[in-house]
Write the structure tokens for this entry.
Amino acid sequence: MVTFFKDVFNSFSSWCIAILAICLIAGFQYMYWFGEGGYFDHQHLMQQIQDQAETNQDLKERNRILGAEVYDLKNGAEAVEEHARLDLGLIKPHETFVQMSTLTTPQYQETYVDPLGGDKRNNEDEDSPDFH
């Protein structure tokens, strides 16, 4: 094996060609892995495509739901009545409107204001995010 290399690389020009070939192979490998449009760029773009496909699927589902709601509002009186009652607070004649609070007891006590004028909140900073 050693004699083979001695026979092949017996002149300066053959050494130059071998070094040039090694440099070219190393350069092409570098460009393949790290260059513009290389392997890592390709993997990054494929991840972005996957993320965008998931986002598009979520938006398609949202559009489908909104389309169904629009269809119901255009074609059904029940949907219009439900929208008017829930979102606009409209009531029919001879009905009583009752609004239920969804606050839990601790939240209710923190936001309670005494009708006689005194504020019953805890003595905390008004800059606290709990009160905004």
Summary: Residues 1 and 7 are 10 Å apart (CA to CA). The chain is about 65% helix and 0% strand. The mean pLDDT is 79.
